[in-house]
Structures
1.
Amino acid sequence: MPDAARKRILLALLIVAVVPVGLIARFHGGPAWLRNSAGAVLYEVVWIAAAQFVWISARTHRLALAVLAATCAIELLQLSDAPWLWAARSTVPGRLLLGGNGGFDLMDFPLYGLGCALGYALCRPLRASP
């Protein structure tokens, strides 16, 4: 099996393992700070793994920085009360991707940084050689 195919399988397994853990962490019992923290960190890991899956030979640090920029932008969008954002966030997929209405939290930014560092550490070995 080619190296890229083997690494894509491992990235897919990583995503399949992290998504349920993130959903359980986000929606299961426990203190709100832990649910939010775990969800934010694991959200980054999944996006970096997905990006590395698509762009298998891309430099992982660039993907991690792009994911960090995108998720920080999404966090800033939570300050907006645009009707289309409210409509999107009223759906489960919209809420999972864009966050809750009025859910801006400055403390999410360091969690995104931590998640990107963890995502980088997990996905860097799974990058295929160019």
2.
Amino acid sequence: MKSVISICNKGLQYVGGSPIVSLEENTRGAELCNQLYAEVRDELLESHHWSFATRYVRLPKLPESPPFDFACAYQLPADCIGVRQLQDSKPFEVVEGRVLYTDSTPAKAIITVRVTDPALYPALFVEVMARKLAAELAVPLMNSAKLEQTMYSKFVDSFARAAAVDGAEGVQQIDESDGWLQARTL
């Protein structure tokens, strides 16, 4: 089962570190994982429009007058870490604190939320997290800049693969064995 500890242990394993049982244990690996885990998770969630972290929401309008020439102010959910798009595609100029200012009314938004339950992470996202943690752990834990470079390169590769698979989710694949298609392309 996927857990914070299993993801941290995977990252520790990649750099040759000792496994941990808890983030609170008195080891350098546990201390570093405790410091880095949430930061790495949020960074990765912000860096791609992951389907598992996407929500479609109608934002509640705030009674305050928005600054500048915006028509409306809307409250963002507490777990929102990024606004990807508004439904009517009108541009929004300002996200300040937990408030979005726009001319859209109503504001139906596609947002990225902070997903904290590792059981909800796809396997490839777990791999990306472990690889990013390994890159972050290489210097402070193993004192190796060369290992850091290697781990970062592996992270970049795993991120690209995971983002490509995630981006293809829901995209209809053409069945190239279809006789009609083959006849059309002759």
